[in-house]
Amino acid sequence: MKKETFQSGIHNFRTDRLTVDNIKDDHFVDVVKNILTPKVTKYLPDGWQNLSYNEDINNWIKDRDSESCFLNLRMSNTIVGFCFLSISETETEKLDVRFGYLLSEGVWDKGLGTEFIRGLVNYCNKLEIINSISGGVERQNSGSIRVLEKTGFVKESEKGNTLFYRKGFKRL
C-alpha cells in the first residue's frame, strides 16, 4: 500500500467477529446516537459529549468522516463501534498512525476491544509504510488501558489526565 492510499482514509480488515470498514448504512445517525451514550463518551473529549440531536450527530460525523472506520459485528451485521485513524509523517517515508476507538456499551466485556486492537495492529503491521501506531487514553479508563497493554502497547508519555501509548513496528 502506498502512503497516498493510506491517507485517503479507506481502510478495511476483518477479525474473527468484526468487519472494520468505512461503509455507513441509511440509519447511521440513529446508530451513532445509540452508541454515544454518556457512559461510552465519559472519557472522551468535550466535543464528543452530549450529542443528542440529529444535526449535532450529522456535524460530528461530517467532522470525522475521512478518518472514520466502523466496527461491524459480523454475526449480526450491526455497527457496534467506531475507530478514528489519522496520520503524521515522520522524517522517513514511514507514517505514524494515531487512533482512537469506542465500543457500544452493549458489547463491553466481551473481548471485542482487544480483538479490534489486535486486528488493527495486524493490519498496520502488514502495511510496510507504517512505522508505529499510538493512542491516548484517560487515566481512569482502566478497561482501555488493559486492552492497550495486553496488545503490546507501551506507555510513552503523560499529559494531564491522558496517558499516551505506542506500538512500533520493526522495519528493515
TrEMBL record:
Keywords: Transferase. Coiled coil: none annotated. InterPro entries: Acyl_CoA_acyltransferase, GNAT_dom, N-acetyltransferase. GO terms for molecular function: acyltransferase activity, transferring groups other than amino-acyl groups. Residues 17-154 form the N-acetyltransferase domain. This is GNAT family N-acetyltransferase.
